[in-house]
């Protein structure tokens, strides 16, 4: 992995683009939307995260959203072209009483015709099976970084805890979304270590989100030296080469690197993007900018999203009717 990361930039991008073309339509991306269904107040200590209750970041704690709020957000995401809807909760892991309403959300989002994804923390035995029965397609649980660097970022759960949750997800027949974060002060060798872990999962994750740290004041990682965006693109390229059949997703930190680096990341084999919460309002300048960039590059949303877009008029009518009816 390190030898790949060390390649001359043009050689690396050429290899990544060649692998990409062998396995995917190079001009298509999959769009995922993320909704925080329960924000803040998390007991864990992930050093990058503004939702950890021990850091003073100004994030307000919110209770679990209602089923109606989640369905409305999912409908708006669908109208904006998302094909997958991810529901995230800031928990160490779901308690049994937490899981029941989430199962209802999964059923309702699935019924809209969206792919469903959840990120709820560590899972106990049996919980993945319940999620699968409710219709969950993907579970997101990131390894975050290499095992060597991990202890400098998180102390409240171990690397093995994460691998164990991933095993439970796999065993229940749910597709795995698993990636990490770069720009946390790790070395290039440690970034190679993260890719090595991901690429050696059997089977490899179906989705691999690569995040570029968004520094938030009040978290321990605020003030970390920023990662050169070329290094971020190198990570995308090595993920593409070593996980040729996975969707490699540009996730957090995408906007900060600007349009030219995002275009380079697509060239390096990224074929999925995360819109984040902000997609979930109809007049969203960031979503409009994203669309404009994809159009400039001649990139189309993946087929599932295109089909959904063709359904828009009917869905719009239904969404506005349910909104009117309260
Ligand atoms: S477990 Fe999730 S929500 Fe909690 S601190 Fe870590 S990243 Fe944040």
Can you walk through the features of this model?
There is one protein chain. The protein is an alpha/beta fold. 44% of the residues lie in helices and 14% in strands. It has 13 helices and 10 strands. Strands 1, 2, 3, 4, 5, 6, 7, 8, 9 and 10 form a 10-stranded parallel beta sheet that branches. β7, α9 (229-242) and β8 (247-250) form a beta-alpha-beta unit. Iron/sulfur cluster binds next to loops.
* Number of E strands: 10
Average the pLDDT over all residues and give the rounded result.
88
Associated small molecules: iron/sulfur cluster
Model regions low in confidence, pLDDT < 50 over at least 5 residues: 279-283, 304-326
For the termini, the CA-CA separation is 53 Å
Number of helices: 13
Strand fraction equals 5-15%
Biggest sheet, in brief? 10 strands, parallel
Structural class: alpha/beta
Helix fraction, binned, reads 40-55%
Can you write the helix and strand succession as a string?
Answer: HHEHEHEHEHHEEHEHEHEHEHH
Our Rg estimate from Cα atoms comes to 19 Å
Shape: globular
């Amino acid at each position: 992995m390190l030898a790949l990361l060390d390649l001359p930039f043009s050689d690396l991008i050429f290899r990544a683009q060649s692998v990409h073309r062998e396995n995917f339509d190079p001009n298509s991306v999959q769009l995922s939307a993320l909704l925080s269904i329960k924000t803040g107040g998390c007991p864990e200590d992930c050093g990058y995260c503004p939702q950890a209750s021990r850091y003073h970041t100004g994030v307000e704690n919110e209770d679990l959203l209602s089923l109606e709020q989640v369905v409305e957000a999912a409908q708006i995401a669908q109208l904006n072209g998302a094909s997958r809807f991810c529901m995230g909760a800031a928990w160490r892991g779901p308690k049994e009483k937490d899981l029941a309403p989430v199962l209802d959300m999964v059923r309702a989002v699935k019924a809209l015709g969206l792919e469903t994804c959840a990120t709820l923390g560590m899972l106990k035995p049996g919980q993945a099976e319940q999620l699968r029965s409710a219709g969950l397609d993907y579970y997101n649980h990131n390894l975050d970084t290499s095992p060597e660097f991990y202890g400098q970022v998180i102390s409240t759960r171990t690397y093995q805890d994460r691998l164990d949750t991933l095993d439970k997800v796999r065993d229940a027949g749910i597709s795995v979304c698993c990636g990490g974060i770069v720009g946390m002060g790790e070395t290039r060798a440690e970034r190679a270590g993260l890719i090595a872990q991901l690429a050696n999962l059997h089977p490899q994750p179906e989705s691999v989100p690569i995040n570029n740290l968004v520094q938030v004041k009040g978290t321990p990682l605020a003030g970390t030296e920023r990662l050169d965006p070329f290094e971020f693109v190198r990570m995308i390229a090595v993920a593409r080469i070593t996980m040729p059949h996975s969707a490699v997703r540009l996730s957090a930190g995408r906007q900060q690197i600007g349009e030219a680096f995002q275009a380079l990341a697509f060239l390096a084999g990224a074929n999925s993007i995360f819109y984040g919460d902000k997609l979930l309002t109809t007049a969203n300048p960031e979503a409009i900018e994203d669309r404009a960039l994809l159009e400039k590059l001649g990139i189309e949303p993946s087929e599932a999203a295109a089909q959904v877009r063709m359904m828009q008029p009917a869905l719009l009518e239904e969404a506005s009717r349910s909104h009117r009816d309260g």
